[in-house]
Amino acid sequence: MKTKLLSLFFILILMGCEKRNDYIPDPNQKIFFQLEYANYAWGFQHHGWMIDNTGAVRSFNLPKTWTYIDSQGFISSIDMDKNIEQLDTAFTNIDNESLTKYVAKIYAASEGKITDPQSQMFDASGSVFSAFIYNSKLGKYKQVMLKQTGDVFIDNKSLEANEIYNWMTNIRQNN
After folding, report:
1. What pLDDT is attached to residue 12?
2. Which pLDDT value is given to residue 121?
3. Phi/psi of residue 99, each to 5°?
4. Is residue 57 within 8 Å of 70, Cβ to Cβ?
C-alpha cells in the first residue's frame, strides 16, 4: 500500500513539473504582436501598431490597402508584408529581454479558451490585441486572439494571453 501511495505521489509531482511549451518563432517571422483599432460609427477610423522581430513598435493610421485576418484567423505572409509596408517609423523599441519574454508566451496563449463574443457598448468601436504564430510551410501567420474590447468583448482565458495583453496595454499607454 505504501509503495502504491509513494508511486502516486511521484507521478503527481512529475505531472506538476511539466513545463509548458515556449514558443520558438520561425526565423522568417516578421511580426509578433498587433493592436488594431477600428471605428465606423463617427467617421471611419482605423489605426494601431505592430511589434516586429527587432522590437520596433511601428504604427499605422488609415492605411490605403489593409488586409485583415481571414475568417479562419490567418493572413498570408504576402499580405502581412503589404501591411508592414504601410507602417510608419518606430515610435518606440522593445528591449530584447522583454520581447523574448513575451514572444515565449505566444504558444501557450494560443491554447487558451476564447470566450463567446459579448455585446458591451454601442458606437464605441473596437480594439483587437493579437499575437501571431508564423508557419513558413503554409506561408501564413495565425492570429492568436488575446482580447477584444469595445462594442464586442472577447477574452482569451489563458494566463499568458492576459500577461501579453497587460504588457501591450502598458506600451499603448506609455506612448
Report:
1. 37
2. 64
3. -60, -50
4. no
Q: 94 φ, ψ to 5°?
A: -95, 135
d(CA 117, CA 115): 6
Distance CA 165, CA 59 (A): 17
Contact of 53 with 81, CB cutoff 8 Å:
no
* Residues whose CB is less than 8 angstroms from the CB of residue 56 and which lie 6 or more positions away in sequence, other chains included: 90, 93, 94
| Distance between CA atoms of residues 147 and 125, nearest Å | 14
- pLDDT at res. 22: 67
| Local mean pLDDT, 10-residue blocks, the chain (175 residues) | 38 42 82 92 85 97 94 97 95 96 97 92 79 96 96 96 97 68
Rounded CA gap, 52 and 82, in Å? 14
What is the 3-state composition of the chain as percent helix, strand, coil, each rounded to the nearest 5? 30, 35, 35
Phi and psi (nearest 5°) for 89? Answer: -65, 160
Q: Three cell numbers at 168?
A: 501591450
Contact 161, 112 (CB under 8 A): yes
Task: Name the grid cell of 31.
Answer: 511580426
Give the C-alpha separation, 71 to 67, whole Å: 12
Instruction: Determine which helix (DSSP H) or strand (DSSP E) holds 19, and give its type and residue range.
Output: none
In this predicted structure, what is the pLDDT of residue 16? 44
